[in-house]
Amino acid sequence: MSFADLGLSPKLLEAIAAAGYENPTPIQKEAIPPALKGSDVLGIAQTGTGKTASFTLPMIERLSKGRAKARMPRSLVLAPTRELAAQVAENFEKYGVNHKLSMALLIGGVSFGDQDAKLMRGVDVLIATPGRFIDQFERGKLLLNGIEVMVVDEADRMLDMGFIPDIEKIFKMTPITRQTLFFSATMPPEIQRITDQFLHNPIRVEVSRPATAATTITQNIVRVPGKDDKLKRAILRELLRQDDVKNGIIFCNRKSTVDVVAKSLQKHGFNARPIHGDLAQAFRTETLEKFRTDEVQFLVASDVAARGLDIPAVSHVFNYDVPIHADDYVHRIGRTGRAGRKGAAMMLVTPADGKHYDAILKTIGAEEIEALDFSKFFDENPVQESRSRGGRDAKGGKNAKDERGGSRRSSRRSGRKPEQSGDASETEVSQPEKSLETAAPEEVENAPQKSANRRDSHGSSRRRGGGDSRPSRRRDEAVVGLGDHVPAFLTREVAR
Ligand code: AMP
What we know:
alpha/beta, Rossmann fold, seven-stranded parallel beta sheet, six-stranded parallel beta sheet, 13 strands, binds adenosine monophosphate
């Protein structure tokens, strides 16, 4: 099936060809025809599947007829993060080159003033993060009765970030006659409830998730005896030095850990950069660009920062921390082994991770993930405190034999002498990290879920005191400027 078979117009087909795409991806094949007909679509797909084009293409087609009126956007795309919103904007730019659609972007780091002017004139497409959108609405700058199409992208991430009450509110503010295109990688009950309530006879389109499809991903763990961060970093370095590691993303659960691990790797001569929500937007954009162009080999990332980003396939994913939500494991490892290429995912598992590790096994339907043999490494790198405590494995010793289970790769690697790991400079970055339980919520990118759920049941108390207590919003507001990455349409004059 070609793009032409999907019912797209010649102008769009030209833009698609110019983008270099030959055939539609499965989600595009299934979602575009009903979306073109005006049906609601519930797309269960995650980034990397081509889902963005599956809603931007039919939207461009629909919006090419008619024109926007002052303060009345004709369509609204809600994305959980600035990067995702900017990516959606770039998609509209790319596929809309032969159309004269006007666009505005309401995200942290893009000045309200410029976007205000565009909104005043009227835009065909408004792309926003939910918080920014509501702020703008509450300032009386928007009339929503002209919304013909509404898109919710990465809904499950919105749930994690505490945006679901906002999404509900926005659904209620937009005309019931709107067409809704709703995308989520997973369908937890809260998301199901929203789609049941606000979508009208949606066409459900599901493309397989990486963990089920990714026979190309080799998964391994390393059992770390004890909760010793210094040891974890030494093991990580050992993993990064494997011959077949071309590039990789190292996932940590906390932003503070991202910083510590990135700094440590840099000290040890690795070409690594951190990315998380507290870093300035310009730095994040630059880091991603450098990673894309192979100037940076390793990205040390938090889930929220990395989620949904269009990063080309990496050879390896390293889970420095066992993710707290099992679904995040699926998202993380889905960063490798894309498009039929081979990929490897490795995870450090400490005895304290038992519960979360078990949840991951359940999610991916595995009895066990094969443990790499690090016995020689441990022999050569005596672990002071944690090892003397007995070196139990992550499941309390049950799988101790796995440590000796034998991986060709790790046995080969573990022949290195300790000094070659360059541990000397470790002390400078080995400040103790707070445990997850004691860390401030904003330090834990996954933590908003708990507070978000609490907010769910207590309504919109977040507005009290004039502030906005959403951690994700704080991240938004901490940032100024999109750096070099300002989408071109933002700098263009609106000529309407
Ligand atoms: P997405 O899932 O929307 O984040 O898209 C993932 C990547 O696939 C992006 O780099 C898109 O530009 C690319 N892409 C989207 N559609 C196609 C297609 N039909 N053929 C090849 N690449 C595509």
